[in-house]
Amino acid sequence: MNSSDDDFEAELRALGESLHVPPPPGDMSARVLAALEEPKPRFTTKRLVAVVAAFLVVLVAATPQGRAAVAEVLRFAGVEIEVGTSGPLPSGSPSPLPSETSAALAEARRMVAFPLVVPAALGEPGQVRVADGGQVVSMYWDGVRLDQYDGTLRDVWNKQLGEPFPQPARVGDLAAMWIPQKHGIEYLPKGGGRPVSLRLAGPTLIWQSGGVGLRLEGVATLDEATRIAASVR
C-alpha cells in the first residue's frame, strides 16, 4: 500500500469517528469499521472508495436529513416525488384543477400545444377534461385516469410517498416509473401560486414520450399498466 492509500485511510478513520448516526439494522456501521481493521496488504484506493460508499449509504438510510436529501432530487417526467413523507393519507373529495372544463376529444386536441394520445387497450375515453389553459388533459375510463401534460419545462405534479421508493419500469423503449401504493398528489399550477390541494391517488405509472409527460393511474399491476401504456396511439 502506498503513502496516498495510508493518508486516505487515516482520513476515512477520522471521518468515521467524528460522525454520530443511529445504528441501522444489522449494525452496518460496525461492519464498515470492521472492514477497516482487516489485514489488507492489497488495500487499494478502489476498495476504500467502496467502503466510503457503504458508509454513506448508512448515513443516508439512518438519518431523516439524509432521506430528505434523496427525496428532493427524485424528479421524473415533470413529477416531483417526495419519498418517506410521514402523516396520514389525504381523504375527502379532490379539488378540480385550475380552469378545468370538459371537452370532446377532438376539441381537446385543438386546445393544447402537444399531441394527445389514447391507449388502444382502453378505447375512447368516457370523459376528457382540459385544465390550466391547456397545460393538462385528463382522460377517464372506469376507475382509470390518464393525465397528459408538458413535462419538459417544470414540475407539474408533486407526489408524497411513504416507503418504498418507486420502481423503475419500461414502456416499450421508454424509461418509466411505477408507484404501486396509494399516495398523496397535488397539482402545481402553471402560473405559480399555491398547489391544488392534495388528493389520494391509486397505483400510478409515469413515463415521458417526446416532450409529453404521462401518468396512468388506477391500474392495479405493473404488467397491466405497461400493457395499456404501450398501446397509446
How would you describe the overall organization of this protein?
29% of the residues lie in helices and 28% in strands. It contains six helices and 13 strands. The strands form two sheets. It has an eight-stranded antiparallel β-sheet, with helices on one face. It has a five-stranded mixed β-sheet with strand order 1-2-7-10-11, covered by helices on one side. Helix 3 crosses helix 4. The N and C termini lie far apart (60 Å). About 18% of the residues have low confidence.
Topology:
Elements: H1 3-18, H2 28-37, H3 45-62, H4 64-72, E1 75-76, E2 79-83, E3 101-102, H5 105-111, E4 127-131, E5 136-141, E6 144-150, E7 157-161, E8 167-171, E9 174-179, E10 183-187, E11 196-201, E12 204-209, E13 212-217, H6 222-229
Parallel strand pairs: 2-7
Antiparallel strand pairs: 1-2, 3-4, 4-5, 5-6, 6-13, 7-10, 8-9, 9-12, 10-11, 12-13
Helix pairs in contact: 1-3, 2-3, 3-4
Brief overview, please?
The protein has 233 residues and is an alpha+beta fold. The chain is 29% helix and 28% strand.
The number of helical segments is 6
Q: How many β strands by DSSP?
A: 13
Outline, from the CA principal axes?
globular
Biggest sheet details: 8 strands, antiparallel
- Gyration radius, rounded: 23 Å
In round numbers, the mean pLDDT is: 77
Q: Level of helix content?
A: 25-40%
Order of helices and strands: HHHHEEEHEEEEEEEEEEH
Quickly count the domains.
2
